[in-house]
C-alpha cells in the first residue's frame, strides 16, 4: 500500500513538473521565436533601380513569411566571376536560400547547381541549363515577350523600315529566348532583320550605339533587356543632344524592360513601345517558392512558373493598370 | 440511449473497489463542473473580447477618419483659398496668378505636390511650383479634368494616379490624389470656365493609414464611393493580383460593423464613410483573430484545468481513502470470517463513519453469537463422540474379561493351579494397564505391553501351540493409540487362525511408521478366508457367523475412526490357506500431545 502511495505521489509530481515545463516553454515561445529565414537575393548588373520593383516584391513576401533578406548587386554588369564570388560568399555566410538572376546562363550553371545541392535556390528571370537537379525558375515567358515586342513593332511599322536588333547580353538565356521570339515573329511576317552586335573592341555600349546611329539613324531598333534599352536611350540622347537644330533623324526604339529611365523615355516619346513583366509579382513569387522549399514543400515544377507581362506605349502609359505596374508606389 | 449508458456505468462498476468508484465519481463530477464553467467563462470572454476588438476598430477608424477629414479639409481650404483669394481676384488677360499661387503652395507644400489652373481648353494659366507642361499633354482628357467639368458645382477627388502634367527631372514621378473643381475666370471683363487642380501627395494619406496598419491581423484600407481602392496596406499585391480584397462587396455596406465571408475566411468589417468625399474607411479583422488573441488565455485555462484535475484527483484519492478504508478493513474482517476463521484471533474492525461502525458492531456481535453456537456444537459433538467411544470401550472390557476368565476356569478344571495363578496375575497386570487411569488413548508401548500380556495368557492356554514374532520399530513406541486395539485382533488370530494349526501356528506383530502415519500389523498363517468375507468383516450390518462375544474387529475399527477420523481404521487382507493380515492405521501423534489435549478437555469440562 505504501509503495502504491509513493507511486501515486511520484506520478502526480511528474505531471506537475511536466505542466510547469510546458507552461514555461509556451510562455517563452514568443520570446525565442527567432526562426526567421536568412535569404540572399543576388541579381545581375550594378543598377539597383532596375530591380526596385522586384526587390519590393521580395521584401513584401519576406515580411509575410518571416524571412530576412540581403539584396546584392554586382560591381559591374557582366562579370561572371563577380557573381560567383557573391554566391560563394553568401553560402559561406550560411544563408538558408538564394534567389538569383544569373548574369550568364552557361557560366553560372555549375556554381548554381552545386549550391542547389545544399540549399534551396530559385532562379529569377534568367534560367540556367540544368539537367542534374530541378531548380525552380520564376519568370515571364521570355519567348512570348519577344513575340509581343515583334507584334508592337509590326503594328506601327511596315516592312520597309529596317529593323535592327541590338545583340548584347546574349549570354543570358532570357535574352536569347526573347530574341528567338522576336526574330521568329518578324521573319515569319516577312520583316528583314539586321543586327547591331558589338565587336571585341566595342567595350562601351554608348559609343557603339553612337557609332551605329552615325551609320544608320533611320529604322527600328529593338533592345531585349534593360541594359541594352537604357544603352540605346543614352546613346540616342547623346546623339540628339549634338543636334542643335533638332532636325536630324533618330531611330524608333522598342524594347523590353521597365526601369524608371525607360518609363521616363517612353513618356517623353524617345521610346515607341515597351514590353515588360510584372517584376513585383516575380519577386514576391520567387520568395514564396523559396520559403516553400525551405519548409520542405513539394519539388519545383519542371517548366517553371510564368509571370504576367504587358506592353505599353505613350498613349497607354498612364492607364491606371499600367501606372500601377510601371510607377511603383513605395510601401 | 440512457438505458445503455446506465448499463455501461453499471457494468463498469462491477468488480471495482469502493475507493476507485468514489474517486472516479468525485473526479468526474468535478471535471464536468469545471469544464462547463470553464467553457461558459471562455465563451463569455471570447464574446466580450470580440466586442472589445470591434469597438477598438471602430474607435481606430473614427480616429483615422478624423485625421483624413482634417487632411481633406485642409486641401479643400487650399483649393478655396486659391479660388477665392487668387483666381477670383485677377483678370487673366492682364495678370498672372503664379505669384499668389506660389505663396499659398509654400504654406501647404508639406502635403501638396502642386497646384495648377487650366482654361476650358486645357491651356495652363498658372501653376505652383512653376513648371513647364510636358510636351503633348492634353489635360482635357485627364480624369480629374473631365470629372470637374461634368459636375461643375462640386469638388472632385480622384483616385491615386501618377501626376501627368509637368516635366519632372531625373525620372521623378508623383503619386497624387487630385482635388479638382471648375472655377470662374475673368478675362478682359468676360467670365469663362477654368479648372483648378490641387494635387495632394498620396504619401500623406499613406502615412495616415500606415500608422494604424501595424500588421497584427487587423488592417484598414480606404476606397472611394465606387469601391475603387485608394489606399490598401497590400496595394501592390492587389495590383499584381497576388491579393484579393472584397472592396466591391464592402462598398454597399452601411456604416457600422458587418460580418462577411470572403475567400472562405469569416471577417469582421467595420465601415466608416468620410464626409463630403464619400470615401469609405474599412477595417478588416478575420474572426479567427478574436480567438487567436486569446491563445495565451486559452492555454492558461487548459493549464489551470489540468492542474486542478491533478489536484482534485489527488485530493479525491485521499478523501475516498478516508471513506473507503474503514469499509475495506471491515471487508477484510468479513473475508477472514468467510474463510471460516471464528477463532479468537478474528477481530472484526469497528471504525470510520457512524454507519460503518454500526455495521462492524453488528458483524462482531454476529461473530460472537456464531462462536458460541459453534462451541456448543463442537462440545456436543465431542460429547457424542466420547459417549460412543465409551460405549464401544465398555463393550470391549467385558469381552476381554470373559475370554480370560474362561481360560482361567479351564486351567482350574485341569488342576493347573500354578498356571491359573500366573494367569490371574497376568490378568491383574493387564487390567492395571487397561484401566489406564480411565484414558482411552495410551502409548503404543503400553498397548504392546498389553498385547504381550494377553499373548502370554493365551500361550498358556494353548500350550504354546503357536509362536509370536514381534517386529516393532522402537521409534513408534512414544506415539499414542486407542487402548485395547491389538487384543481383539490377536484374539481373532488365535481363535480363527491357530486353533486348527497344531504346533505350526505363527502370529507376527509389526509396528512401523510411514511419513506421518503409524501402522500396526497383526498377521497369522491360519486358514485365511475369501476376499468376499474379509471385505464384510468391517461392515456393521454383516451377517457373518460370530464366535464368542462377537465383538472384535468392528469395535476396534469404529473406535479408531471416532477417535482419529474416517481416514484411519482397520484394513483386512486375507487369503484362504495362506493367512490373514489386519493392518491398523493410526495418525502419528505423540502420546504426550494427547495427554495435554485431554487435560485441556478435562479442564473445560
Write the layout of secondary structure elements.
The complex is a heterodimer of chains A (331) and B (605).
Chain A: H1 2-27, E1 37-42, H2 52-65, E2 67-72, H3 80-92, E3 97-100, H4 105-116, E4 121-124, E5 136-140, H5 142-156, E6 163-166, H6 173-188, E7 193-196, H7 205-215, E8 220-223, H8 226-241, E9 252-256, H9 260-267, E10 271-277, H10 279-294, E11 305-307, E12 309-313, H11 320-326
Parallel strand pairs in A: 1-2, 1-3, 3-4, 4-5, 5-11, 6-7, 6-8, 8-9, 9-10
Antiparallel strand pairs in A: 10-12
Helix pairs in contact in A: 2-10, 3-4, 5-6, 7-8
Chain B: H1 2-13, H2 18-86, H3 98-108, E1 112-119, E2 124-128, H4 143-150, E3 156-157, E4 161-162, E5 175-187, E6 190-201, H5 202-210, E7 219-223, E8 229-231, H6 235-239, H7 247-250, E9 256-262, E10 265-273, E11 280-286, H8 287-292, H9 295-338, H10 354-413, H11 417-435, E12 441-443, H12 444-461, E13 466-472, E14 480-482, H13 486-498, E15 505-514, E16 517-524, H14 531-536, H15 553-564, E17 569-575, E18 579-587, H16 591-604
Parallel strand pairs in B: 13-15
Antiparallel strand pairs in B: 1-2, 1-6, 3-5, 4-5, 5-6, 7-8, 7-11, 9-10, 10-11, 12-14, 15-16, 16-18, 17-18
Helix pairs in contact in B: 2-3, 2-5, 2-9, 9-10, 10-11, 10-15, 11-12, 12-13
In short:
The complex is a heterodimer of chains A (331) and B (605). Chain A is an alpha/beta fold.
Determine the strand fraction of chain B and express it as a percent band. Answer: 15-25%
**Whole-number tally of structural domains of chain A:** 2
Please give the share of residues in helix of chain A: 40-55%
Tell me the span between the first and last alpha carbons of chain B. Answer: 68 Å
CATH architecture descriptor name of one domain in chain B:
2-Layer Sandwich
What is the chains' assembly state? heterodimer
CATH superfamily grouping of the largest domain in chain A: Response regulator
The fraction of residues assigned to DSSP E strands of chain A is 15-25%
- What would you call the shape of chain A? elongated
Total E-strand runs of chain A: 12
Number of helices of chain B: 16
Backbone CA Rg of chain B: 64 Å
What value does the average pLDDT of chain A take? 86
Using only C-alpha atoms, the radius of gyration of chain A works out to: 26 Å
* CATH class wording of one domain in chain B: Alpha Beta
CATH class of the largest domain in chain A: Alpha Beta
**Count of helix runs of chain A:** 11
Amino acid at each position: 500500500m505504501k509503495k502504491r502511495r509513493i507511486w501515486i505521489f511520484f506520478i502526480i509530481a511528474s505531471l506537475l513538473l511536466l505542466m510547469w515545463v510546458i507552461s514555461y516553454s509556451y510562455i517563452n515561445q514568443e520570446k525565442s521565436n527567432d526562426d526567421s529565414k536568412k535569404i540572399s537575393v543576388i541579381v545581375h548588373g550594378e543598377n539597383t533601380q532596375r530591380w526596385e520593383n522586384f526587390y519590393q516584391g521580395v521584401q513584401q513576401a519576406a515580411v509575410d513569411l518571416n524571412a530576412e533578406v540581403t539584396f546584392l548587386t554586382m560591381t559591374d554588369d557582366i562579370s561572371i566571376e563577380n557573381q560567383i564570388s557573391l554566391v560563394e560568399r553568401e553560402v559561406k555566410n550560411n544563408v538558408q536560400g538564394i534567389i538569383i538572376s544569373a548574369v550568364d546562363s552557361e557560366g553560372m550553371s555549375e556554381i548554381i547547381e552545386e549550391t542547389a545541392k545544399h540549399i534551396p535556390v530559385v532562379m529569377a528571370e534568367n534560367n540556367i541549363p540544368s539537367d542534374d537537379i530541378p531548380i525552380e525558375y520564376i519568370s515571364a515567358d521570355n519567348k512570348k515577350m519577344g513575340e509581343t515586342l515583334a507584334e508592337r513593332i509590326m503594328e506601327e511599322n511596315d516592312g520597309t523600315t529596317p529593323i535592327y536588333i541590338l545583340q548584347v547580353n546574349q549570354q543570358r538565356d532570357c535574352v536569347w529566348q526573347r530574341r528567338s521570339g522576336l526574330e521568329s515573329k518578324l521573319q515569319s511576317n516577312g520583316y528583314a532583320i539586321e543586327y547591331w552586335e558589338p565587336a571585341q573592341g566595342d567595350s562601351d555600349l554608348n559609343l557603339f550605339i553612337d557609332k551605329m546611329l552615325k551609320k544608320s539613324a533611320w529604322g527600328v531598333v529593338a533592345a531585349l533587356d534593360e541594359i541594352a534599352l537604357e544603352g540605346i536611350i543614352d546613346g540616342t540622347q547623346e546623339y540628339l543632344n549634338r543636334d542643335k537644330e533638332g532636325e536630324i533623324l533618330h531611330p524608333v526604339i522598342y524594347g523590353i524592360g521597365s526601369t524608371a529611365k525607360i518609363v521616363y523615355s517612353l513618356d517623353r516619346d524617345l521610346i515607341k513601345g515597351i514590353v515588360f513583366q510584372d517584376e513585383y509579382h516575380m519577386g514576391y513569387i520567387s520568395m514564396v517558392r523559396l520559403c516553400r522549399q525551405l519548409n520542405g514543400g513539394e519539388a519545383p515544377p519542371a517548366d517553371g512558373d510564368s509571370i504576367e507581362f504587358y506592353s505599353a506605349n505613350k498613349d497607354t502609359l498612364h492607364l491606371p493598370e499600367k501606372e500601377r505596374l510601371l510607377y511603383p508606389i513605395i510601401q | 440511449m440512457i438505458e445503455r449508458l446506465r448499463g455501461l456505468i453499471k457494468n463498469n462498476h462491477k468488480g471495482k473497489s469502493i475507493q476507485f468508484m468514489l474517486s472516479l465519481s468525485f473526479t468526474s463530477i468535478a471535471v464536468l463542473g469545471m469544464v462547463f464553467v470553464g467553457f461558459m467563462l471562455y465563451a463569455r470572454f471570447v464574446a466580450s473580447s470580440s466586442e472589445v476588438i470591434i469597438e477598438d476598430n471602430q474607435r481606430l477608424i473614427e480616429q483615422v477618419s478624423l485625421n483624413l477629414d482634417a487632411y481633406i479639409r485642409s486641401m479643400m481650404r487650399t483649393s478655396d483659398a486659391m479660388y477665392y483669394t487668387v483666381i477670383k481676384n485677377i483678370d487673366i488677360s492682364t495678370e498672372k496668378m503664379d505669384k499668389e499661387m506660389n505663396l499659398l503652395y509654400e504654406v501647404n507644400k508639406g502635403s501638396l505636390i502642386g497646384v495648377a489652373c487650366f482654361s476650358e481648353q486645357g491651356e495652363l494659366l498658372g501653376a505652383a511650383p512653376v513648371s513647364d507642361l510636358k510636351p503633348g499633354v492634353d489635360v482635357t482628357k485627364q480624369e480629374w479634368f473631365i470629372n470637374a467639368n461634368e459636375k461643375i458645382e462640386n469638388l472632385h477627388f480622384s483616385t491615386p494616379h501618377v501626376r501627368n502634367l509637368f516635366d519632372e527631372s531625373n525620372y521623378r514621378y508623383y503619386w497624387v490624389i487630385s482635388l479638382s473643381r471648375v472655377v470662374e475666370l475673368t478675362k478682359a471683363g468676360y467670365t469663362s470656365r477654368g479648372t483648378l487642380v490641387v494635387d495632394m501627395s498620396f504619401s500623406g494619406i499613406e502615412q495616415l493609414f500606415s500608422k494604424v496598419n501595424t500588421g497584427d491581423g487587423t488592417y484598414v484600407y480606404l476606397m472611394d464611393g465606387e469601391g475603387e481602392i485608394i489606399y490598401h496596406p497590400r496595394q501592390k499585391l492587389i495590383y499584381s493580383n497576388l491579393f484579393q480584397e472584397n472592396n466591391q462587396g464592402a462598398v454597399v455596406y452601411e456604416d457600422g460593423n458587418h460580418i462577411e465571408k470572403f475567400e472562405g475566411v469569416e471577417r469582421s468589417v467595420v465601415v466608416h464613410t468620410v464626409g463630403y468625399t464619400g470615401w469609405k474607411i474599412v477595417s478588416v479583422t478575420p474572426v479567427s483573430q478574436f480567438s487567436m488573441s486569446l491563445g495565451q488565455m486559452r492555454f492558461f485555462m487548459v493549464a489551470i484545468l489540468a492542474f486542478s484535475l491533478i489536484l482534485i484527483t489527488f485530493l479525491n484519492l485521499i478523501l475516498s481513502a478516508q471513506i473507503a478504508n474503514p469499509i475495506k478493513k471491515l471487508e477484510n474482517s468479513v473475508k477472514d470470517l468467510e474463510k471460516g476463521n471464528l477463532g479468537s484471533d478474528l477481530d472484526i474492525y469497528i471504525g470510520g463513519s457512524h454507519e460503518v461502525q454500526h455495521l462492524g458492531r453488528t458483524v462482531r456481535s454476529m461473530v460472537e453469537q456464531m462462536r458460541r453456537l459453534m462451541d456448543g456444537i463442537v462440545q456436543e459433538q465431542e460429547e457424542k463422540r466420547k459417549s460412543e467411544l465409551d460405549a464401544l470401550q465398555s463393550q470391549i472390557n467385558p469381552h476381554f474379561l470373559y475370554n480370560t476368565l474362561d481360560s482361567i476356569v479351564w486351567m482350574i478344571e485341569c488342576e493347573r493351579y500354578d498356571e491359573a495363578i500366573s494367569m490371574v496375575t497376568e490378568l491383574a497386570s493387564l487390567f492395571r494397564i487397561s484401566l489406564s487411569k480411565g484414558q482411552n488413548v495410551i502409548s503404543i508401548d503400553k498397548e504392546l505391553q498389553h498385547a504381550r500380556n494377553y499373548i502370554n495368557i493365551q500361550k498358556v492356554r494353548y500350550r504354546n501351540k503357536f509362536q509370536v514374532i514381534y517386529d516393532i520399530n522402537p521409534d513408534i513406541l512414544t506415539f499414542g493409540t486407542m487402548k485395547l486395539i491389538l487384543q481383539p485382533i490377536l484374539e481373532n488370530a488365535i481363535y480363527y487362525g491357530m486353533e486348527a494349526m497344531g504346533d505350526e501356528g505363527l502370529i507376527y506383530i509389526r509396528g512401523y511408521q510411514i511419513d506421518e502415519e503409524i501402522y500396526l500389523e497383526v498377521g497369522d498363517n491360519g486358514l485365511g478366508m475369501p476376499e468376499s468375507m474379509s471385505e464384510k468383516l468391517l461392515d456393521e450390518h454383516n451377517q457373518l457367523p460370530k464366535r464368542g462375544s462377537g465383538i472384535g474387529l468392528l469395535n476396534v475399527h469404529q473406535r479408531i475412526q471416532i477417535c482419529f477420523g474416517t481416514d484411519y481404521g482397520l484394513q483386512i487382507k486375507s487369503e484362504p490357506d495362506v493367512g490373514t493380515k489386519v493392518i491398523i492405521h493410526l495418525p502419528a501423534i505423540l502420546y504426550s500431545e494427547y495427554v495435554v489435549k485431554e487435560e485441556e478437555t478435562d479442564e473445560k469440562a
